[in-house]
Amino acid sequence: MHERPLPLAAALSGLASIVLLFIGQAFGGGGSPDLNASRATITDWLARQHADAATYAGGTLELLGILAMVVFAATLWSVLRGGDDSDVFAATAFGAGLVSAAVKLASGPAVFAAVWRHDEGLNPQLGAVLVDMNNVSFVLTWTIDAVMLAAAATVILRANVLPRWLGWLAAATSVILIASAPAADLVPPVGILLTFVWIVGTSVVLTRRTLRPHARVAPAHA
Q1: Residue 51: its pLDDT value, please?
Q2: Considering the domain boundaries, does residue 180 fall inside one?
Q3: Domains identified in the chain, total number
Q4: Averaged pLDDT score across all residues of the chain
Q5: I need a surface site. Which of 30, 58, 153, 215 has the fewest CB within 10 A?
Q6: Is residue 217 included in any domain, yes or no?
Q7: How far apart are CA 211 and CA 130, in angstroms?
């Protein structure tokens, strides 16, 4: 017998998600102002945004990136459950991945509305609130991603279903995410950047496993 490899699309989902998110932001003119931005700064940023083809293309790519994250969460669950007798930690990682993707999806309409309505005389205070809603939702995902990484680290370090360096990186990153979320307006987003690195690293490891030839063991004869 041999371990059945993952579908290639599933193995690549994490890498695809991060690439799509970054390319989408580049098409859309970069991310929104940070939490420390003044109302005037946010108003100026909104004035530079345009509901044109590039913005729509960037938004579409970001949407696809978030949806790919759902596939990655399911892929991670399928890997972790092989080393989790209780299924609790594998299911926790899967659930947290889904919730994180849902929060990301739910935050998008706020900033989209601000960009869409700005040229129609959107009140600057309302525009700032809509952008802040998007930013606070992003910070909220740090804590949710921390749960996913902590659950994944527990299984990886116990059962070695993935390389141990991924387990230690997940454990350290989960702590950084939790610690930095309350001070998100004061500290750089190191935790979420490490999360992206972990997702890409996990996806690369899984892709290499999928592409590696799996030797079949001949059945024993009496």
Answers
A1: 65
A2: yes
A3: 1
A4: 87
A5: 215
A6: no
A7: 44
